[in-house]
Design a protein that fits this description.
Helix Hairpins, two-stranded antiparallel ribbon, rod-shaped, transport, V_ATPase_D, proton-transporting ATPase activity, rotational mechanism, V-type proton ATPase subunit D
Length: 261
């Protein structure tokens, strides 16, 4: 496209004009819906961005407190608490499951944590540091909960980013390519139909002129034939030459015109 938006290569007829107008209406509605979708996704995108920022800020404090709790547990119970914990834990109690949430037609992944089974305080009866190990466990549970929330926000952020880019590309294509092309096509078809209408009007005027001249020729021929017959009758009746009879008719017609005027 150089300077102007191109038009569709169509035959300029009334039927095609109706079809292109219907396509323009559909493109306009689609543009409005996609624009609303883009705005809704942008609002959700900004909300998630704010939540990510606040979650990452609190993540530092939570991870710091969890690491400090682990240091305290090692200080109280000793450095060999890893083997003791592994012996007392058979399976994970804190698990994560995924689901999807529909936001303006976009499916966003969501992660939820849940506790599978009962949480036993078997480590409380250790000779040293059982209570401190339970406190360390609680601190890391909070860290996991925050990590699951952050994973949900980050995944939703990336999904929304791709969806917004795709939607904006479609909105720009409809606004800058499809709609102007259809509008130019409609203008072209209307111009061609107007030109055809002017050509038909000119053709009808020409035909009417031809018919009028043909009728005039017929009328003049009939008048000349009648005058010839009348001149023959005068020539036979009065015994004068045919030329004199024509002169007599001309003089009579001149007198009639003088009387009228």
């Amino acid at each position: 496209m150089s300077g102007q938006t191109q038009r569709l290569n169509v035959v300029p007829t009334v039927t095609v004009l109706g079809v292109v107008k219907a396509r323009l209406v559909g493109a306009t509605r689609g543009h409005a819906l996609l624009k609303k979708k883009s705005d809704a996704l942008t609002v959700q995108f900004r909300q998630i961005l704010k939540k990510i920022v606040s979650t990452k800020e609190s993540m530092g404090e939570i991870m710091k407190s969890s690491s400090f709790a682990l240091t305290e547990a090692k200080y109280v119970a000793g450095e060999n608490i890893k083997h003791i914990v592994l012996e007392n834990v058979s399976s994970a109690t804190l698990k994560v499951r995924s689901r999807t949430e529909n936001v303006a037609g976009v499916k966003l992944p969501k992660f939820d944590y849940f506790i599978d089974g009962e949480t036993k305080n078997d480590l409380t009866g250790l000779a040293r540091g059982g209570q401190q190990i339970q406190a360390c466990r609680g601190a890391y549970v909070k860290s996991i909960e925050l990590l699951v929330e952050l994973a949900t926000l980050q995944t939703s952020f990336l999904t929304l980013d791709d969806a917004i880019k795709t939607t904006n590309r479609r909105v720009n294509a409809l606004e800058n390519v499809v709609k102007p092309r259809l509008e130019n096509t409609i203008s072209y078809i209307k111009g061609e139909l107007d030109e055809l209408e002017r050509e038909d009007f000119f053709r009808l005027k020409k035909i009417q002129g031809y018919k009028r001249r043909a009728l005039e020729r017929q009328r003049l021929s009939a008048k000349a034939f009648a005058e010839e017959k009348m001149a023959e009758e005068i020539s036979l009746t009065k015994g004068v030459p045919i030329g004199s009879a024509h002169n007599m008719l001309s003089q009579a017609a001149q007198k009639d015109e003088d009387i009228i005027f």
